[in-house]
Amino acid sequence: MDHKSIFKKYNISPKKSLGQNFLIDDAILEKIASYLNLDSKNVVEVGPWYWALTEKILTKNPVSLSLVELDLNMIRIIEDRIKNNNLKTEKTKFEIKNIDVLKYFPKQKNYVVVANIPYYITSPILRHFFFETPNKPSEMLILMQKDVWDKIRKFDGKSSLLSLFADFACEEIKEIIKVWKNNFLPAPKVESSVLYFKLRESKDFWISEKDFFEIIKIAFAQKRKKLTSNLLPIISKEKIEKIFNDLGFNQNSRAEDLDLEKWIELIIKIKEAS
Fold first, then answer.
1. What is the mean pLDDT of the chain?
2. 0.85 exceeded by pTM
């Protein structure tokens, strides 16, 4: 069934409260599904909605496909489409999870995440799979608004919480598809991109995820203030000023002025001085 027929049959009306903007360009949906070699892989799709992307994924013969969808109405549509044989699931182990993705912890090994998600929850979802999920995915394909991508790639030359989290968690990040407003229904106010994330198999940085996450959050709590001031809750003024001198860092630096490499140097010194 084409998109218009599905919308008409099921009387689909995007819910603003759930940030629903449906991607309706089949060529782009096919590119997303084809980018990763999904044959013989476990796939988690976040936000399948009425299953436009899911159809494309199923043609790639994944071993399993788990759909994570919060909207019960969309789940009913998916179940009806399966019942009416509009969607073929025979070759793939298939499940639908009616759950908030931030409370979803995949059990399958060696899985990938594909997500066409509401823009307002992009950063929390990335943090969830980067840090909060014990069993992390190997790769992710995420459709997100362009300004989030600009933050991740540090378009203005400044680091952010999100860019540092992404750099710490991933060995490769790149844009694979630009998606224009008119590819959605309804059209969002901003342009979008599909990003590819390859997560690190190991983080041999000599610091733990816990230490990195906690110190970075404290440092960015008041990002317009000097970093030496922001770090006072965890280290004395004398110690942090000495660390900055030893590392050759500017005492007036803000959290956004340090890249991942410098942050790792700083956190190692902070833990040694604690």
1. 90
2. yes
